[in-house]
């Protein structure tokens, strides 16, 4: 009997005591592959038969098994495993590491087990134990696959065990022996003519049948095509694409991974209850005209596609939606789901589409990952990954990457075959650079404006350079997650913290802010209450026609984050903007500022409205763990102290940690409150950025806050007041009043304050003065640095934090933001504005401590 076991599997041996599991393991596997419960009992108790040590032994066994599985090594568990509870732990371990669990059952006769046990001095427990093991085993046999074992091999006699052979099979996704060269092709979506054109441009000779239909293609130099999935749906000729690709796959000139559209396509062909949307109706209609035999072949072909391939010794990975490194070469439902669908952030963009999680931004793996799924204007490298879906069916291009040459080859779509929900903006053929400004349409964007090494000339800070890798990161974020670019006029700069304080109990203190501005020649500063929310940019139009006439897009405006993402679904955004528009009208701002649109800098509260996932997964989890563990530890240490054990120092430290944990929970809870729709949402504007024809960084901050107060008066349920205090940095009494005000704010649990030059834009001897510094409270900083950051040793270490890079970043981003606003006010083309917007986002990807 041949027992096939997939590579990297977790193999669970199941059988009564004496059934021969250990002998079987020694016969068929290397000693290092086998983890025996007896051996681990010996490790922890010096006695392999000490059943009282079983719990510790299995803890150690599971830990070692986890390390082996994490490294991708086949692992055999040698224990009785006749109880479902013991098997369920092992199945969960296999799922955690995305490997396949396999069961090998030795269902030996009772007499054989008893005879073998009688010959071993350490097996003196007699026949009842064996009978119980066999009874539990027989009850389990029919349920092993339902429990989660992907393969179950049962051996029922000594002869079957002796005749058994074990064969380790490579996983279906393991194509490491295939070294290429390859031509990896992006999402085709039924665009058969473009596919033929691309294959010919890559040097493939297309084979045709008597009806001149393409039924295969081969390269004279032996190159092979690799398709990233989504061959079907939306386009004009899904059957033609399938006929060509199926022929190539059968001839061995192509490999194909499954896309999410193939999966749904198969389910529809099998009569499953699926929603006929996203182009599936076109495929089904086209396939209905084909013979039944072809439909059956197409169904079987798509159903048999693998979710991802690992190629060229592990140097190349191809998956439809991409794949993080820890999933490469693994096999589980989670891995397949990510490969087919990717992951979403839980947000919905303004087109009603899910916001994709930018896994490529965090990718640091050795393998090149090529994928599709999310249409991009251009194929760009991001951390050794490339998305090859350039939206052919949407009127873009069909793109391939030649591997290992890393050469991108594309052909343009013959037409727009399917209108996308989110506009695809492919690059235009530009005229010479000398007259490009005057000839380009105002709202047309081009990748060349933001890609590669950039240098943006600003009025207030000279020329600011953007490195190509930073530009690529910004493009990745913007193209995947941002609102419609026609609404995106400004991204706010990062804010630098105040200089680190040397006071023994705080890390930040207002006196350093006052001293810093005093040294820069700034006498009057404005201290503004720092709201604990999310930075929000609000662009609101006075009426429905303004968006179309001024920005080239219909709609009331936009509300977006610091990185250009929408805060709310479209209907909630419209509702919020309606209230802002009405408040501006009630406050008389439209007439006073002579404008039909208004761009505001604001804070949107509560923090939990946007950061709920962060709060639940990070802050609340830490707080819950601390509150569960530390009080018990305090009680135990107190009891030990009463018994005379010298734990006074540890007890005091644990009491302090418990108090710190309580303070930590209180710190983040202050900034969370329930919201439903817009109920509970507050908006605290603090600056008017721009209106038609002008900017306002030459107006004092007091004027900006007075405008905000008028909005609060118009709609006090939506708008929140920003409290403030003016301080003379040269007057000790005034600075003392500023310190006292900060202590009052933070003593009540507030985040702290922002200190700004009262005159707003200010220049000093060394150029631009910092537009603002944040002075955060002692308790709020627990959220940033952790519950125990106030301990003396931790504070001393944190005082060494370096602020120079963060301050330089804040100044450069501030200058870029001002430049972009001035270009907006002058009515310059959108691509000129976006040059600044992209540059701000690109600088945000520079390596700076995010806690600063």
UniProtKB/TrEMBL annotation:
Ordered alphabetically, the record's keywords are:
Kinase, Transferase
List each copy of the Polynucleotide kinase-phosphatase ligase domain by range.
473-847
User: Annotated Gene Ontology MF terms?
Assistant: kinase activity; phosphatase activity
Q: Which SUPFAM superfamilies match?
A: DNA ligase/mRNA capping enzyme, catalytic domain, Metallo-dependent phosphatases, P-loop containing nucleoside triphosphate hydrolases
Give yes or no: UniProt keyword Transferase.
yes
Magnesium is among the record's keywords? no
Q: Where is the Calcineurin-like phosphoesterase domain?
A: 181-385
NCBIfam families, per the entry: bacter_Pnkp (TIGR04075)
What protein name applies here? Answer: Polynucleotide kinase-phosphatase
